[in-house]
């Protein structure tokens, strides 16, 4: 496995295209967390996110003969994943204004060192933030997930979404302003 | 440069994605523009809020079995394809053989042969029509490849 894992993503994808399953396994191991958390950000349900992220890898494997190394593997894979997530949302017609219970909120606190009063405030904040994020248009939601929750750089986001870096900056600005509007009681 | 250009740069400043000249230019503008300074503060607060939470993680067990689950799905998909192909070939061959023997049987009257043949052809026409309609609907499915 170590020999395989030292290859670039594009080399691995080409190896997988040639029928080497182990090469595809390395790609899955490398990107499974990104895939799952991005899907979670889109759909907000743990089981659905796990299923969609795995299904995206299955579809990527089945379509690997169409992969061209002109694109980064993750850029190509992301298109499959995001289309699957958006189709899932469209079919379930959950892209609407909605409220969730505290238990349904897919966030947890980034730190555990908080007093009870702050923890209560943070629970409300998590709920409002998830509702706000859920109400954003898909292109705003995805850029917030990629930047805030997966920590991709502007260059990486530009490659994943295939837009110029200037557009990443402006889209992030509008997405943040919209999210701020959704959270006007908190900010 | 109008405020709009500086507003976009505010995002870059928050994410430490600006080059030195862009940062100097924006900081200079923030010193003199109350509106942009207020927006910067609001977006900084928003960033603090999003930084304070993260998505709930899965258990180590689920992560450990993640690849195996994908492998099983791929394997199962291949199994279904082979099974379906085999079934289609065998059923088609069986039907062809039975129909050939039936039509060649001199004891069966011509009327029955015509009736059975019409029934068979009718079924095939209906099947092809339904498959064609399904393929057409699939190609026109607006959610199949959601475009953004």
Oligomer: heterodimer
Q: For the terminal residues of chain A, how far apart are their CA atoms?
A: 49 Å
Low-confidence stretches of chain B: none
Please, what is the average pLDDT of chain A?
87
- What is the global morphology of chain B? elongated
> Most extensive interface, residues per chain?
A-B, 53 and 39 residues
Give the number of DSSP strands of chain B.
Answer: 1
Number of DSSP helices of chain B? 6
Alpha-beta content class of chain B: mainly alpha
The main pleated sheet of chain A reads as: none
What's the layout of helices and strands?
The complex is a heterodimer of chains A (187) and B (148).
Chain A lengths: L1 H4 L3 H9 L3 H23 L2 H17 L10 H20 L14 E3 L6 H19 L3 H12 L4 H8 L3 H18 L5
Helix pairs in contact in A: 2-3, 3-4, 3-5, 3-7, 4-5, 7-9, 8-9
Chain B lengths: L2 H12 L5 H13 L1 H18 L1 E3 L4 H5 L1 H39 L5 H30 L9
Helix pairs in contact in B: 1-2, 1-3, 2-3
What does this protein look like?
- The complex is a heterodimer of chains A (187) and B (148).
- With 187 residues, chain A is mainly alpha-helical.
- Chain A is 70% helix and 2% strand.
- Chain A has helices at 2-5, 9-17, 21-43, 46-62, 73-92, 116-134, 138-149, 154-161, 165-182; one strand at residues 107-109.
- In chain A, helix 3 crosses helix 7 and helix 8 (154-161) crosses helix 9 (165-182).
- The model of chain B has no long low-confidence stretch (mean pLDDT 89).
- Chain B starts with a helix and ends in a 9-residue tail after the last helix.
- The chains are: A mainly alpha (187), B mainly alpha (148).
- At the A-B interface, helix 3, helix 4, helix 5, strand 1 and helix 6 of A face helix 1, helix 3, strand 1 and helix 5 of B.
- Strand 1 (107-109) of chain A pairs antiparallel with strand 1 (53-55) of chain B, so a sheet runs across the interface.
